[in-house]
Amino acid sequence: MVVDTALYDVLGVAPDASQQDIKRAYHKASLASHPDKNPDRQEEASREFQRIGQAWETLGDEGSRKRYDEYGEDGPSGRAGPTGYGMDEADLDDVFAQMFGGGMGGMGGMGGMGGPPPRRTKKRRRAPPTVIPYSVTLADLYLGKRARFTLSRFVFCSSCHGSGAKAGAPQQGTECYECKGQGSVAKLSSAGGGYIQRHYIDCPSCKGEGVKVREKDRCRKCKGEKVVKTKAKLAVRIEPGMRDGQRIVFREQSDASPLAEKPGHLIIELKLEPHAALTVKQADLLAEAHITLSEALLGLDRAVFTHLDGRAIRFRSRPGAVVRPGDVAVLRGQGLPGWHGASDGDLYIKWEIDFPPDGWLPQIEALKMAPLLPPKRADPSKGYDEVAGRVEDGTRHPKHDNTDGDDDGDDDDDDQEQQQQQHTAGLGRVQVVELQMARLDEFGSHALPPLPAEDEDSEDEEGGSSCVVC
């Protein structure tokens, strides 16, 4: 009695077909599904081509066919060809002879087809780590924080202890039927020009182990996967003074893998969120504080900043100690706390002066205040003649002539004299303008005109090249 007809279905034959019928069906299916015959669906055709080869490997041999009829695909393995995935060299030669009119010996591009397949994947000592980004605020790094969350991860099955087999069954499993214990299978793909390229991938059936637990021997809890998914609670302690990008490692708390002896590490990577008022650089903090013009001139005595722990910081300055825009105060040791013996950072306060709006002071009050303020600076333009705008003297932008005429040095003297006149044309004159304010983001908004295109073919009548400013 045939327990599984999947491989017969691949070749399109009945379970009671003769060996000759199976061989004819194999050749027909191989030719029809070859990747070079199906350029529009090469990847799908490659998988079909591989599956057909696996079917022929089993059904083309009477002994392996009998074992397949009795046990199915998970039954004891049959013969393994050197191609590593279900076809021996003679089978391939037969197929290619029909496709290309000759055997493999006549195909120079098939040199990569020979050679033994790679060995099965060796178990790693530890599974790869898992990195989880975790957002923190600046206050979290300043004060510290404890966080708890639940995560899903794979652990070794407690019932079979990671073997995948039930009690009493072979704990190491049996040789994988798909890869014949190699842990890898060959995949054919077109290399262009009618050539075929072969490369090896981890066997998808045994995941590169080379062995697999038979279905009837599988652990009921993990279904032979060796690992099960579970939920775990994790407590994360963020210590004061930790930094953006710092990693907290939980050893062997990540996923377990059938290809590794131990679970991987779980890594929590701190990602600092931007703060609305503070800038961070290393362990130092920088903040801006706004004070009035009166406070800047007459002294300051009030809280201007609230720190990350909620305490207000009150600044005092004596009258006459002028605070200027851009001045910076520093509080030593008031930045981020040191971590594991490092020194504490500093807190820097950059002062910004809020000037009063226009018209805040009546004219008569301004006259009374004037004697109390520092004297005005002297005007160096007293006695100058007033002009409306830029001074022109008729010598700006003299026309250059780049010819090869005789040069006795007189032209250079004339140019120097013209330049001197340009630089001194405005001496003794002054332009008076009304003060008009602007925004700094307008700076650079006047675009320059495009440069003239350089005409490589333009030449003057003398044969010399014309001068182009570029």
Automatic annotation (TrEMBL):
Ranges of compositional bias, category Acidic residues: 404-417, 453-463
Which Gene3D superfamilies does the protein's record reference?
Answer: DnaJ domain (1.10.287.110), Heat shock protein DnaJ, cysteine-rich domain (2.10.230.10), Urease metallochaperone UreE, N-terminal domain (2.60.260.20)
InterPro entries annotated for this entry? DnaJ_C, DnaJ_domain, DnaJ_domain_CS, DNJA1/2-like, HSP40/DnaJ_pept-bd, HSP_DnaJ_Cys-rich_dom, HSP_DnaJ_Cys-rich_dom_sf, J_dom_sf
Q: Provide the J domain boundaries.
A: 6-72
Please note every region of biased composition (Basic and acidic residues). Answer: 34-50, 376-403
Map out region (Disordered) in residue numbers: 24-86, 374-470
**SMART domains in alphabetical order:** DnaJ
Q: Which GO terms describe its biological process?
A: protein folding
An example of a GO molecular function for this protein is:
zinc ion binding
CR-type zinc finger positions in the chain?
144-231
**Highest taxon, organism lineage:** Eukaryota
Q: Which UniProt keywords apply?
A: Metal-binding, Repeat, Zinc, Zinc-finger
Please list the residue ranges annotated as the CR-type domain.
144-231
- In this record, what's one Pfam family? DnaJ_CXXCXGXG
Q: What is the protein name given in its UniProt record?
A: DnaJ-domain-containing protein
Which source organism does the UniProt entry give? Acaromyces ingoldii
